[in-house]
Amino acid sequence: MKRSFASAVAKVPPLRAVPFLKSIPQTDAPLLTDRQREELARIGVRLRLSARTLIYREDSAAQWVFAVAEGVVKSYRELPSGKRAVSAFLFPRDLFGLAENGRYVNSAQAITRVTLYRLPMNELSVLLKHDGDLQFKFLVKVTHELRASQRRAILVNRRDAAGRLAMFIALMEEHADRAVEDGRAVPLPMTRSDVAGFLGLSLESVSRAAAELERRGIVKFESRHLARILDRVRLARLVAAV
Amino acid sequence: MKRSFASAVAKVPPLRAVPFLKSIPQTDAPLLTDRQREELARIGVRLRLSARTLIYREDSAAQWVFAVAEGVVKSYRELPSGKRAVSAFLFPRDLFGLAENGRYVNSAQAITRVTLYRLPMNELSVLLKHDGDLQFKFLVKVTHELRASQRRAILVNRRDAAGRLAMFIALMEEHADRAVEDGRAVPLPMTRSDVAGFLGLSLESVSRAAAELERRGIVKFESRHLARILDRVRLARLVAAV
DNA sequence: CGCTACTTTGATATTTTTCAATCTTGGTGG
DNA sequence: CCACCAAGATTGAAAAATATCAAAGTAGCG
After folding, report:
1. Taking burial as the number of CB atoms within 10 A of a residue's CB, which of A115, A173, B31, B178 is the most buried?
2. What is the dihedral of CA B68, B73, B78, B84, to 10 degrees?
3. Residues 124-183, chain A: which have Cβ within 8 Å of B?
4. pTM for this one?
5. Strand D CB shell (< 7 Å)
6. H helices then E strands: how many in chain A?
7. Per-residue model confidence as pLDDT tens for chain B (242 residues)
8. Alpha-carbon distance B50 to nearest alpha carbon in chain A (angstroms)
């Protein structure tokens, strides 16, 4: 029993990524093997952070890479104008800690209470060099993120605010915990301001777009942080109408 | 002599990327060693394509990865609305051919006459598995692209068209061939429509933004495809004012 | 040297941002 | 357990910017 408990917690979460090579229909399979997760857990530290904790700041020395086990994290940049642009929201099985020349490119902050694995960059490098297969999986994961970033860039370019928000809700639904998500309720743990920063809109526009989706009977906001999809067909149509 | 000719051409171009680990000040160093370039050239084919050649189409089977040796390529997606969103422009020492489940995610087309190396994906996989160091360099390169994509997403989110175009010109200048670029002339080989697709603007807005930059004395368009930077300070200020 | 594709320019319509005021809600402490 | 407070969210009206529609102008290529 003790052993099963240990095997349940003493592993980094398996990563989530669609491979670039053709594979078995299973597109959303966990990327890492149990053995690899254990190896990573060995060099890492498990952290529990409360909501709103700043994980690292832009331009600070990048010593670690992080893997999300539970909760949601945002990666963002403060712009000279005072706005904050949100580069990504990170969910369980995501990796973050993008660095350039040994410095973090973004800041990262916990949105909810989170559980993270903190992996020292230098030890990770050694591990990757020893384990070509593991390294290949990191390559797959980063490639997956690159696609996601490009896709988001395209979707965000659309002019209409309601369409952007619809796209965002659809995106968030993909990350929703199937177990919790009984019907069609999509948790949106971030603030409207965060959503605005991600979509490149003012927060007022996000608020108005939410009101519009609700008025049109496509989505019902049961609370600020929980959206219920009422008309999946029209939502999909809105998302596709780029 | 034959031999030196061979060594000059029978190699894939060295990749360009800023590493994530801290390194020697040399931030823009060629990524690949001569040996690695030869290895890659061995499995690849060198292609010369004329301007406007379609290299591959979105959703087609992704058999190859490409490396740009000369010229400029655009990677884009056709949207249901009929617009084309440009994901990236690829320059010498760039890699392209992003795939998902064995299918290309974007379409790619030559903008100028180009020289490419076409690398078969399956042979490349084998090579990467054998050469952990080479694989690591691919990881660095993809990570570099991910940063570039995120950065672009942030810059494109700014509202003002003139600022976006200024940012674009500054970006293109980074890729300009130093040898050719005597003064401050920046080649813009793509059409206004391509620029619009990249910046998320209508092509009329791009045209007007260009007129505005010219009116303000920041940039002079010596031709449609050649911009001369007149006031580097104010250009930089515009770019930074995100 | 003419055609065709690409650009520019103008006027109007649409949309979002901005500024300002008000409303909610989750958390805190009495 | 309830009231209060402050951060976050909503709503309204006006201003600013880009998209769109339309027409005319350029220039590169065969």
Report:
1. B31
2. 150
3. 125, 128-129, 132-133, 135-136, 138-139, 142-143, 145-147, 149-154, 156-157
4. 0.90
5. A 159, 191-193, 203-204, 206-208, 210-211, 221, 224; B 159-162, 200-202, 204-205, 209, 223-224
6. 8, 13
7. 444 444 445 689 999 988 887 765 555 677 899 999 999 999 999 999 999 999 999 999 999 999 999 999 999 999 888 889 999 999 999 999 989 999 999 999 999 999 999 999 999 999 998 899 999 999 999 999 999 999 888 888 887 999 999 999 999 998 887 655 566 789 999 999 999 999 999 999 999 999 999 999 999 999 999 999 999 999 999 988 87
8. 27
Q: Quick check: B80 and A136 CB within 8 A?
A: no
Rounded distance between C-alpha atoms, residue A55 and residue A76, angstroms: 11
- Residue for token pair 């999509």: A186
Whether residue A105 contacts residue B20, with contact meaning beta carbons closer than 8 Å, is answered with no
Instruction: Please tell me the distance from the alpha carbon of residue B71 to that of residue B88, in angstroms, as a whole number.
Output: 14
Work out whether the CA dihedral B160, B161, B163, B164 comes out positive or negative: positive
Record: contact A136-B149, CB cut-off 8 A: no
- The DSSP annotation for chain B comes to -HHHHHHHHSSPPPPB---SS---S-TT-B-S-HHHHHHHHHH-EEEEE-TT-EEE-TTSB--EEEEEEES-EEEEEE-TTS-EEEEEEE-TT-EE--EETTEESSEEEESS-EEEEEEEHHHHHHHHHH-HHHHHHHHHHHHHHHHHHHHHHHHHT-S-HHHHHHHHHHHHHHHS-TTT--SSEEE--S-HHHHHHHHTS-HHHHHHHHHHHHHTTSEEEEETTEEEES-HHHHHHHHH--
CA atoms within 13 A on the CB side of A111: 24
